[in-house]
Amino acid sequence: MKLPWKKEKDPIELEKEELARAWAVEDLNSEKRQALIERYMALDSQQLEHEKIRAEHGIDGKTILSNGVTIGLALLTLNYEKFDIVRSKVANFWLRRRQ
Predict the structure, then answer these.
(1) What is the distance between the alpha carbons of residues 69 and 74, in angstroms, rounded to a whole number?
(2) Neighbours of 36 (CB within 10 A)
(3) Residue 25 to residue 77: CA distance in whole angstroms
C-alpha cells in the first residue's frame, strides 16, 4: 500500500547509493573511483535541481494560513450578513405589529 507520508527512494537516490558503495571499495587514486565520484556529483546536482523545482511550486505554511484566514473571514462575513438580514426583517415585523 502506498502511503503519502512514506517516502519511497527514487531511481536517482538508488543509483547514488550504488555509486557510493562502488567507490568505497575502489583504490583512493584510481581513475574509476574519480569517474564514480563525478557521476555521483552529477546525479546529486540533478536531484537538487529537481527538489528546487518542486519547492518552488509547492504549497508552504504561509500560503495555507493566509488562504485559511481569507476563507474564515469570508464565512464569518456571510454568516453575519445572513443574521443581519434576518434580524432586520424580524425588527421590521415587530415594529409593524398591531398592539
Answers:
(1) 9
(2) 19
(3) 67
- Contact by Cβ (8 Å): 26, 32: yes
What is the value of pTM for the model shown?
A: 0.51
Q: Which of 71, 11, 1, 75 is nearest to 43 (CA)?
A: 11
**Cell digits of residue 18:** 550504488
Helix, strand, coil shares of the chain, percent, nearest 5, are 75, 0, 25
The dihedrals phi and psi of 3, each to the nearest 5 degrees, come to: -95, 140
pLDDT by residue for the chain (99 residues), tens only, comes to 667 677 787 888 888 889 888 888 888 788 888 898 899 899 999 988 888 887 777 788 888 999 999 999 999 998 888 888 877 877 777 777 776
